[in-house]
Amino acid sequence: MSRPANRAIRPLMLGMGWFPDQKGGLNRYLAGLHRELVRQGVAARAVVLGPAAGLPDGVHLAADGDAPLPARMRGFARAARQLSEDIDVADVHFALYGLWPLLSRAWRGKPMVVHFQGPWAQESVSAGDRRWPRAWLKARVETAVYRRANALVVLSSAFKRVLVESYGVSPWRVTVIPPGVDLEEFEPGSHDVARRALGLEPGTFTAVVARRLVPRMGIDVLLEAWVTVARDSPGACLLVVGEGPERTTLEAQAARSAPAGSVRFLGAVGEQELKSCYRAADVVVVPSRELEGYGLVVLESLASGTPVVVSDAGGLPEAVIGLDPSLVVPAGDAGALAARINAAADGSRPLPARDDCRRFAEAFSWPAVARRNQDVYAAAVDPARDRRKRVVYLDHCARISGGELAMLRLLPAMEQVDCHVILGEEGPLVGRLLSRHVSTEVLPLGSRARNLSRSSVTAPDLPVLTTLQTALYILRLTRRLRRLRPDLVHTNSLKSLVYGGVAGRLAGVPVVCHVRDRLSDDYLPAQASMLVRGILKRFARAVITNSHATREALRVDVAATEIPSPVTYDPVRQVARRSGGSASEGLTVTMLGRLAPWKGQHLFIEAFAAAFPAGGARALVVGGAQFGEQEYEADMLRLASALGIAARVEFLGHVDDVDAVLDRTDILVHASVGIEPFGLVVAEGMAAGLAVVATDVGGPSEIIEDGVSGVLFRTGDPEDLARVMRLLADQPELRARLGTGARAAARRFAPEVIAREVNDLYDSILRAS
Question: Rounded to the nearest 5°, which phi and psi values hold at 420?
Fold first, then answer.
């Protein structure tokens, strides 16, 4: 019998225990979701294990949690069978109890949704259960349930990656829904009253950690860090809330190393006392080592108005990065953790205000979580409902460079596309993508193939091992694409263009090749250009170039569309500039980009020395050396010294917060000595409202209207660059006018604008297929 179109889908939720009778994040989540679904008029049923007192309507007890496994499984089977007629979808919250709908005839043909809140087998091993048959069996159960599920829900992109890489689950079936928090139960309250209830002295800097005391929670790392905190902040107090097998060991560690009285173990506490701990704390710390899906404690603390410092384990960064990226420290690094807590205690790097914490938490309401879960139920019942285009993006590296940064900005704006990224290595890009909720996996590419330099691509001298690694990778990627069955493959780098073009054709998937580099003799050896052109001609369904200069250099008969790279554009951002600054009043001139000879840092330093041989003008050189270019970095330091300007030239190396550098800049210079394909730095400076100076060839000359949105100088000419610098230094009103024009022109590069153009290209390809 089909379900009436106007009736809400009815789930049967199969969990473990019932909160608050049984603690734990999984039980709390199940109870919170069930309660909110019922509030929204959904006839949600649930089956759980006891003990549980006063279960609400619709929640059924299968057996006692201490009963033997066969008795528990029979209880779940009996309860689920009795309810099967009134249910549309099974919603499994623990893999073991998902076996019943997987095997039962009564449920055959009905869809199944699985909530994945952690790898059961791995967590058991991490907790100390080393009996391999049990771990093996748990892993087999998990794999069977996860792969059978019509849809899966995870709390973070990090755990989506676990499902995809460790269990072979298709990313298209996994939806990331951060957890909800009860905003009425957890609210700020009185900080002082809570501190008095816990016997804390007024003004005492207090940290709280509320976790189960098992190794993966990293409490030992926090205790190690606390030795430094207590030394630098006398009287500081750490409250450890929770029980577990590690308590005796952790108490001994605290007694041995921390100052007496600076650490208090409170054990398991009731809900009211837990809320008092959150309210009393200056900071809550979540120092997990691994296997952290999201951390409900993070949202509970923020809802109580208390900031949280977390490790970068699993999904924890996703829980706080939107509030303040500095709240994340490396997992297992006691020194970094101590430094961040100390900076909060002494005020050198303050934590977010309590009101800001509360406002941030309010975005994670249970009503919103319940509505999104209902969307997942509906998609499981009707798989064709609201299906978006499925696109796999390929890149050989995970370092943050121009092309990778452009992809990082583009994909979150691709609202009409279900994006999945496959990278050839681990690296910073993985975490950055996951923090932006972009589905990501790593399919490792051999280091020889991944790190092959452009100059090495010369026949017949191409290394045999590199060729073999690439060929094997093409076969692995082909198998992966056949499993994923995307609508399109989009390559993001030249190396991924080569292996991705071939693998896409072998897998029968149309390939879009993004070319961000000019195929010219001053950039690539002739053999490398011929290889890329051959791939484009034979395997690319469409080509995207970032500029007209890049398109002109293709010299191959393919359909190419010019779409510039996106830059972050905030339409309400107001950047304060010094309206009266001049060379003698501390003007700051910045060059931003990777340290490499063709980027022209040497030309910039020479021109700066000629333009400002004396005075208060300062130069910032931002960017690190990569790909064996460290000697060039040393040369630049020597050049600045030889020109007598070393004291006024600051080499910042790689920086993550580019906006902070741009905000202290008056003039931004782009000085590539070759033809720049696009000039992402130029567009970034324009979006920041800067007076930008760039070369008069290639991409920058297409981006900038000379004298309106920036100034162009003769490429490779340090004297002309020095002339332009002096002109802008002496005319602050001209800098302001150019900055205004640059901001207006930079709207063209906003991610949502670029996303629409890319999506239109996808649609045209799919219509023609």
Answer: -140, 125
